[in-house]
Amino acid sequence: MLARKSIRFYAKVLSSRPLDLPDLLARRMREAVSRPPRGMATTQIGDVRFDVDMSLHAIARKYFFQTHEMFLEAIFRAHLKRGSIFVDIGANMGYWSAFAASLVGKTGAVHAFEPVPAFHQSVQRLRDQNPEYEIHANNLACGAAPGALPMAVVRPSAENFNNFDTNIGSSSILPGFLDHERSLTDTIEVKVVTFDQYVGDTSLDLDRVGLVKIDVEGYESYCFDGMGAVLGRARGKIPILCEVLNDPARHEKLNGPNIVRRLEALGYICLDATSLKPIDVARMRFEENILCVGVDES
User: Fold this and answer.
1) Which of 112, 204, 248, 297 would you call most buried, defined as having the most Cβ atoms within 10 angstroms of its Cβ?
2) Is 58 a domain residue?
3) This prediction's pTM
């Protein structure tokens, strides 16, 4: 059975790029009728080996069958070419890092950031099992200032295995974000860097960066605070794919329209990541995936 959110995404695909819908539905049906493996399972994304720990959460099935947020794949293919650099801020188990590695190839690079040790191990495994690819597995969060911060982490557990509302991807540094689910979380301390700092420390070639993906569960505003130099580049705006959470009554930083306006003021155009049409800030839901590109690239 399809979740309400999935139905909304498929409806957007139907209205904006209907030719893509049959393949997406066929892949989803194959997942639905297939028996998922147990334990550690290997899937191939192109020539990239990706091992998935199926015991962590039911969402791992989507990584194994490669049906996770399929509507975003077209964005990755459009912006990542052989030799490109992909930045994955909030990599979780590393699914999109693996997908991106298959696109940028052995001459490209992936810089992944995942502060939760259990999930960072998965990104490390991706790096170690694909030594011919340049994959940087950073056990770090990106934020507004360097330091260490508490993070509410959703622990893998049997009782929460099939919960897609608060799952292993819901962990957040945003204060109070998971206070309503304290029984499902542990608090750990994680190291934080600014992305601007990381760029300087690693001499990251921004001209080669084809896409930055940000999925930090409500912490995106702070993440943008720490990448002002990157965002403010006068030429060569770097495309950003960001999950934006919108609930200002819950927390002042959960303000999707403000984030969109901020990026627009810096010379970006913000598009709905499914339809690729300009985002309507007046109709933003709690969770929106937006693609932000320079005015000349839209």
Assistant:
1) 112
2) no
3) 0.94
